[in-house]
């Protein structure tokens, strides 16, 4: 919605990772340096950690664009809580290997054969494992064992582990991961952006979608934005989405700090209401293996919910949004059918000499206007649905 008002080619602050919007903050520049060093070594593990929304996935997407796919084969795993055998099968499938129905030994043999073939073809192999904090100790040990594959003295596999801060702590403290720790050749923790990076970050994303100065931003916005988001890119995106939406609804070409304060207050209210409805998620117990700790945290976090509460929850905002979209499509189909009938009437109105009614232009203009109205209406409903997913759904996924 707001992208139309301000003339943007697309939404500049979507929450899904997009390397086209990559912004090299100080901490991301350091991370790329560590990644470059680690990849040049061609072996062992490289570890990148950071808070939810710090930009790990965007960083890796940017890195992949820089890799030469003729010389580097990349497999990607986004994990849930995997055990050791599951990890082997998922890793094999990430390289396109068909290991369905096979046991662990068969999957390992398939991976080793694949790595040898890639090496003989002059290609290195990189396995990227996201959400590494969800892996069990056994799964991490299996990854370490995969790093043992060699062709002569040449290592065949390198692994990039991405995780949240708890993975950094687990890797540093667990006695069971000592051998894996010894194979980490580069590691970096993504910090938040600095206060002075707020304006460059926002304008970088805006310029990518055709921003030419509309809207303008009051200078007091930037320190306030950093304070509210702590410099976390995803949080900045969430706030900026709301701010631009407010600016468009109020038809403002200058966004002032009082508007930002109103947005922050509104979002804080949303967060407070959400916190009252659900207990805080427990941190994993560091005295337990990773898989047991995660299971324990999930059990402690699960609220007691009656059948009535569950039904009410399911019939919440998401259902209403879906109903609204279904209604919008049904209404659009109804209008489109009427417009088709109108066009058919115009075609039938031609006389035998090919003449057309005198008011043809006016009637076509009316049809175009009705089509535009339908498009705007449908786009508005879809935009509100996207806003809901970005502000609520993605937080749950994170």
Order the strands across the largest sheet as they lie in space: 2-3-6-1-7
In total, how many domains does the architecture comprise?
Answer: 3
For the record, the CATH class of the largest domain is: Alpha Beta
Task: Name the poorly predicted regions.
Answer: 281-291, 293-317, 393-398
What is the helix tally? Answer: 16
Oligomer: single chain
- Secondary-structure element series: HHEHEHHEHEEEHHEHEHHEHHHHH
Strand content: 5-15%
Number of strands: 9
State mean pLDDT (0 to 100 scale).
80
- CATH architectural group of the largest domain: 3-Layer(aba) Sandwich
Percent helix = 55-70%
Distance N to C terminus = 25 Å
Question: What is the name of the CATH topology of the largest domain?
Answer: Rossmann fold
CATH homologous superfamily label of the largest domain:
P-loop containing nucleotide triphosphate hydrolases
Structural class: alpha/beta
Q: Which term fits the overall shape?
A: globular
């Amino acid at each position: 919605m707001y992208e139309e008002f301000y003339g943007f080619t697309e939404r500049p602050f979507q929450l899904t990772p997009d390397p086209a919007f990559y912004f090299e903050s100080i901490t991301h520049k350091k991370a790329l340096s560590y990644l470059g060093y680690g990849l040049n070594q061609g072996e062992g593990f490289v570890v990148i950690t950071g808070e939810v929304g710090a930009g790990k996935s965007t960083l890796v997407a940017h890195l992949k664009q820089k890799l030469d796919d003729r010389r580097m084969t990349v497999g990607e795993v986004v994990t849930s809580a995997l055990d050791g055998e599951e990890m082997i099968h998922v890793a094999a499938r990430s390289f396109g290997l068909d290991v369905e129905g096979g046991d662990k030994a068969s999957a390992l043999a398939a991976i080793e054969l694949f790595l040898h073939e890639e090496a003989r073809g002059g290609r290195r192999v990189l396995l990227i494992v996201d959400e590494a904090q969800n892996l069990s100790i056994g799964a991490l040990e299996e990854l370490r064992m995969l790093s043992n594959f060699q062709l002569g003295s040449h290592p065949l596999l390198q692994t990039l582990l991405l995780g949240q801060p708890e993975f950094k702590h687990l890797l540093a403290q667990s006695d069971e991961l000592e051998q894996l720790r010894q194979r980490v050749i580069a590691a970096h923790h993504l910090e938040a952006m600095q206060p002075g990076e707020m304006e460059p970050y926002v304008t970088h994303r805006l310029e990518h979608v055709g921003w030419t100065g509309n809207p303008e931003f009051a200078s007091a916005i930037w320190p306030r934005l950093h304070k509210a988001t702590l410099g976390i890119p995803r949080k900045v995106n969430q706030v900026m989405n709301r701010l631009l939406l407010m600016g468009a609804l109020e038809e403002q070409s200058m966004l002032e700090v009082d508007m930002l304060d109103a947005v922050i207050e509104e979002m804080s209210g949303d967060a407070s209401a959400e916190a009252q409805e659900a207990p805080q998620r427990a941190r994993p117990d560091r005295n337990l293996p990773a898989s047991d700790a995660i299971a324990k945290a999930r059990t402690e976090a699960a609220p007691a919910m009656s059948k009535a509460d569950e039904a009410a929850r399911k019939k919440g905002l998401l259902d209403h949004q879906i109903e609204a979209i279904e209604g919008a499509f049904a209404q659009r189909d109804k209008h489109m059918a009427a417009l088709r009938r109108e066009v058919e009437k115009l075609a039938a109105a031609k006389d035998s000499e090919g003449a057309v009614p005198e008011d043809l232009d006016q009637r076509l203009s009316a049809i175009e206007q009705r089509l535009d109205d339908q498009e705007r209406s449908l786009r508005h409903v879809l935009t509100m649905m996207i806003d809901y997913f970005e502000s609520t759904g993605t937080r749950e996924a994170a």
